[in-house]
């Protein structure tokens, strides 16, 4: 796979239904059992069975010139014995059935990653396109 926006998430951004700088955007660490469908997967409930640990809120979010970025993040104490495959960004509405998926990212340095019981750190790309761009 590659880094890509979920179709429904892209539609919400395009229709100005989400403000990337102010929305409660979280990152979920997903294991290699998640067979993503970028067209039909829309809500957190589509990925919840494949999430490792607890989703982490993005901080330091910026969106300028069509480029979205945020601070690097860390998922604390992820249980050993799984393989982290990607990070999925979603807007947390407080209800998993309405918290919508935005972005699937699997080109993170060191991924896929065998979990060992320690923290899993995610360093976003510092190149021209940061986390994602339009």
Describe this structure in words.
This protein is mainly beta and 134 residues long. It has one domain. It is 6% helix and 35% strand. It has one helix and eleven strands; from the N terminus they run E-H-E-E-E-E-E-E-E-E-E-E. The protein has one helix spanning 7-14; strands spanning 4-5, 25-31, 51-57, 62-64, 67-69, 73-75, 83-91, 100-105, 113-114, 120-122, 132-133. The strands form three sheets. Strands 1, 2, 3, 7, 8 and 9 form a six-stranded antiparallel β-sheet that branches. The protein has a three-stranded antiparallel β-sheet with strand order 4-5-11, with no helix packed on it. Strands 6-10 form a two-stranded antiparallel sheet. Strand 7 (83-91) and strand 8 (100-105) form a beta hairpin. The model has no long low-confidence stretch (mean pLDDT 95).
Provide a compact summary of the structure.
The protein is mainly β. The protein has one helix at 7-14, and strands spanning 4-5, 25-31, 51-57, 62-64, 67-69, 73-75, 83-91, 100-105, 113-114, 120-122, 132-133.
- How many DSSP helices? 1
Portion of residues within helices: under 10%
Number of strands: 11
**Strand residue content:** 35-45%
H/E element sequence: EHEEEEEEEEEE
Task: Please summarize the sheet with the most strands.
Answer: 6 strands, antiparallel
**Cα end-to-end separation:** 18 Å
What number is the mean pLDDT? 95
Alpha carbon gyration radius: 14 Å
- Give the tally of structural domains: 1
The SS-based structural class is mainly beta
Shape: globular
Poorly predicted runs? none
């Amino acid at each position: 796979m590659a880094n890509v926006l979920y179709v429904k998430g892209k539609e919400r951004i395009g229709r100005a239904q989400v403000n990337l700088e102010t929305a409660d955007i979280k990152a979920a660490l997903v294991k290699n059992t998640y067979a993503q469908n970028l067209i039909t997967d829309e809500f957190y409930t589509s990925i919840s069975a494949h999430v490792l640990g607890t989703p982490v809120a993005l901080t330091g979010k910026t969106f300028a010139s069509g480029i979205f970025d945020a601070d690097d993040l860390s998922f604390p104490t992820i249980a050993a014995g799984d393989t982290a495959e990607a990070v999925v960004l979603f807007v947390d509405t407080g209800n998993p059935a309405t918290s919508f998926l935005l972005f699937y990212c699997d080109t993170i340095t060191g991924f896929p990653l065998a979990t060992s019981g320690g923290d899993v750190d995610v360093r976003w790309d510092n190149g021209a396109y940061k986390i994602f761009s339009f």
